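Record type: ASSEMBLY
Status: queued
Input:
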Amino acid sequence: MIESNLIDSKDPLLQPFQIKGVRFKNRIMSTSHACGLEEGGLPKAGYQAYHEEKAKGGLALSMFGGSSNIDRDSPNIFRQLNVGSDEIIPHLIDFSEKMHRHGAALMCQITHLGRRGDPYAGDWLTTIGPSPVRETLHRSIPKEMDEHDIKRVVEAYAKAAVRCKEGGLDGIETLAAGHLIGQFLSPITNRRSDKYGGSLENRCRFAIMVHESIRNAVGDDFIVGIRFSVDEGIKGGLGFEESLTAAKMLHEQAGLDFINAVYGSMDSVRALAEENMPGMGTPLAPWVKPIGIFKKEVGVPVFHAARIADISSARFAVSEGLVDMAGMTRAQIADPHLVAKLKNGTEEQIRPCVGATHCQSPYRPACLHNPATGRERTLQHSIRPTEGAYKKVIVIGGGPAGLEAARVSAERGHQVSLYEATQDLGGQVHIGSTGSWRRDLIGIIEWRQAELERLKVNMHFNRFMEAEDVLELDADVVIVATGGLPNIDILYGEELCVNTWDILNNQVPVGKEVLVYDGTGRHPAPLAAERAAAAGANLKYVSIDASLGEELTYVEKMRWKKMFIEKGVPFTPETRLIGVERNDSGLVAVLCNEITLNEQKVFVDQVIVEQGSVPMDELFKDLRKHSCNDGVVDLHSFAEALEQPAYDKQGFTLYRVGDSVSSRNIHTAILDSLRLCSSL
Amino acid sequence: MSILVIAELNNGVLADATAHVVAAAKEIGGDIDVLVVGENVSAAEAAAKLDGVTRVRVADNAVYAHQLAEPMSALIVELADGYSHILAAASTTGKNVMPRVAALKDVSQISEILDVVSADTFKRPIYAGNAIATVQSADVLKVITVRTTGFDAVGESNSATVESVDIVVNNTQSSFIKEELALSDRPELSVARVVISGGRGMGSGENFKLLDGIADKLGAAIGASRAAVDAGFVSNDMQVGQTGKIVAPDLYIAVGISGAIQHLAGMKDAKVIVAINQDEEAPIFQVADYGLVGDLFKILPEMESKI
Amino acid sequence: MKVLVAVKRVIDYNVKIRVKADHTDVDLTNVKMAMNPFCEIAVEEAVRLKERGVASEVLVATVGPKAAQEQLRTALALGADRATHVQTDERVESLAVAKLLAKLVEAEQPGLVILGKQAIDTDNNQTGQMLAALTGLAQGTFASEIKVEGDQVQVTREIDGGLQTVELSLPAIVTTDLRLNEPRYAKLPDIMKAKKKPLETKTPADFGIEVASKVSLLKVESPAERKGGIKVGSVDELVDKLKNEAKVIA
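Status: finished
Output:
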């Protein structure tokens, strides 16, 4: 319904922007992040392919190399690039050629971690900082820098900047917030009494020296900016007014070409999760107002990311003059082609960022529901149509695995039909997104549903398929994506227990004295606990793991921890639920501490068990003998996303994906199907 | 042809709807009788004034109090002979009683006609008004409910005769317990016929009060865009859009809403969309039937006074 | 007592319909179908009566094509005990459905029959009332609350301008309105269990009922096309358009 004439010179996001001699062709950029693809501190083929995909997609500016290290005592502890050595230059030359070819500008983030480093990593050198104050997150207590250190680091910044320039980049940004420059700026981390500490002017001195040194080394044309926090947001830290003064001072004295504005501090999980990169269920673009004020006061171009997760937030931020370039970093991890879709009037086809923060986990940059991100060399963002025969493909199951199998097969050009047993699509995602702060998760399903409608896939609901039903359909390919059912197997008494789905689906009312047993460290158990707490239950939470949400990203873990603290839910770690018995007044849950092996009995009226799922594989097993491949997936072809082998035998080929194979997660369910069907 | 119109009453007094039903009867053509049923009803005089009416018949008895379906339909069935059409407003009373009449006479009913094509052919809405069906009835007796907004009310310059109907039926099956007037609750967002939503442009939660007057006058539900919810203006149960509620009202008024795709997904099936925004390039204007560019803080009060 | 629930297979309420090019009907090819939302509420109410011990058995029935069995299976998954499918591919109007259901009522002698107040395709709002007439039973339409007390049922009804409560003697017919309850969803484990519950198929001929209707559908059209987006110059103009052109406000 949105007409193409919207997508012309009138869209504020599609207006170009200029800084010195560099033209950004639109207002959409990606901000620097340590994307997890570096090899030996270098941006090699996989790293470049990941960024190039976004350039192909049309973004104007890609900033890469989150926290790239300028010197040896800033070690590689979270997959950072090394701009402290000339070795990187040829790779940068390659990289910048690729990106420029697509019309995208390229800049790098360079830094010294200071106390944010690790003395037990890399070259095992002590971390350094303005004062010996421990960084909560990365744990180190730094050495107090002396004049030599300061001089060395200032020169290292300049040399690193020069390497970037020689590598053909358009510019760089340094890092204040949380990094060495910011550690000098903040009164919390800078307790010095020499000329580098005390007054704001003194605390800015280091930053000014760094930027003057860089400017002298790279000349005037090269763009130099800084990632800067407008407000540390913590007691005793650098507040808004001081941050503003510091920024103005820095600009006056050393000249800033841009400020990449952020809000908050950096040295705790809470700050990262709530301020820097807020996740699912938090407001969109939460900091644009203070950043807009900052921008007006300082008078330099401003870049900003932080939950600008969709086009309309970006458009708002830019059109209101609050930011100049909108950092849609995670949004382009979900869909690297979002600019192209915006341009050609298919904005509604943009794969949404649902805020799952999977791209911030150890699995980064993989998006929870775009497994091609970070795997550009083997998986496609745009599925190429098949050059072979069109096949009749039947998909059974409308959860994430089934939906992806149907989507990819349809994009290949095959004739696809999907059969879902219940009234709605979504499977476990449907269960996990209802109620609670995790509603946006359903975006994973809704996008696929819209794609299947666009691709004219036949979807059938309320169809619980059995073998005869499938055989009647006479398909060429049958993909079973029937998911699983909750596994509540304990030594004894599971018939007395309920599972998390029962609670989340409102099929069983919440008890009064409830024990939630978490055997997976995933979302269902804390979700059930949240539901039980909301229903007023007296709740006990027992986990086999040492801490809450072991399998979750740090943002999600933090969110659950906070809720548990605020609701006063007691958390018992490293304890196994052995069994459940009935007594006169209710149920007895028998627990065993994994450390001491002591048993304990807890008296409740309801036990909710979470232990993942057991595959619903009866259909698959029944169909095997009718298939030409006995339902076997060739592992090598599968892992490489190559075409599965053909078989001489008569019959359809049968495959199985997602939780119907084994209990895993959304990402693997979708990855299974993408790998299987990309070359179908 | 001879048509019996069941008068729509409001506490014994003739409701406006009746004049619209008589209009529909006139389009069908023929003699028109109006039947007034109830206890201690005073509607006969007003009914007699309606243009086109030949006769007003009044059945006034305790058994007809509150127009319960069982006795009322039994009465109408007793009187049905000689009529070719029986019409009532598609009110809850009409909807409650008329199908019972139709089944007792072993004929079909045609519900909620919008238009009379001929004495046996009518147009009616289906699929929540997203399609219009033209149906033709071969039944000897046509039992019909009428959507009153489809017909302009007849005038009141008539003086038809009024006679009483002495038929009293038995009712041992149902009895009236109580009735409560509607609380001035807003309708539920997902099913409201009219929705007025505020977006980021409202500026604050306080300012959402500016929508109250209009919502009250239009009997509308109040919604919000995600941006307004995220900004903390209103709670998320008011959110219209992809992760909020999907609505398909007859009228959707978007105030200070830019028109994000996710919001449009939640309201694009509204029959009529109005957009009020000060940015004339806002995407919402692409989907609006009527767009008004301007300052919502001036427009809203003006609109409230002029509806 | 036994409770009989009648359900209908209709288009899913989220689907945007299109009229066929030849105007003979709405285009239903490959369109998502579902149980009529008011019927879901009816099933839910019946199942709750069973859970409370008021109903001993819930029997669900539908009149429609073979595919309508999906809706019966859903009802069984939600808690109904037995299902009867009266199978026909013909267009069946409310009167014929009511006649068929009247036969079922005669055979099964339920204490309460619950139906949705209207189907969202035809929007007739007739079947429950017609069934009540044919069986000579009392009716409580547009129910927002149902309370069974002995051999009576109190039904609170949503009427124009408010709520009305009536008391009916059982057996009685009740039709559901939106606020009666919030239905549960049929989940996979229940769907699997429901496969074993009995479902019998009959035809209208088995009951001696002719389904042909005296009302014929001549054509189906889209409502007047949206008059394309225009910008109005003032509040006056806007209000005028809404009142007189779009006719959406009084």
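Annotation: Chain B touches chain C through 80 residues (CB under 8 Å).
Annotation: The mean pLDDT of chain B is 93.
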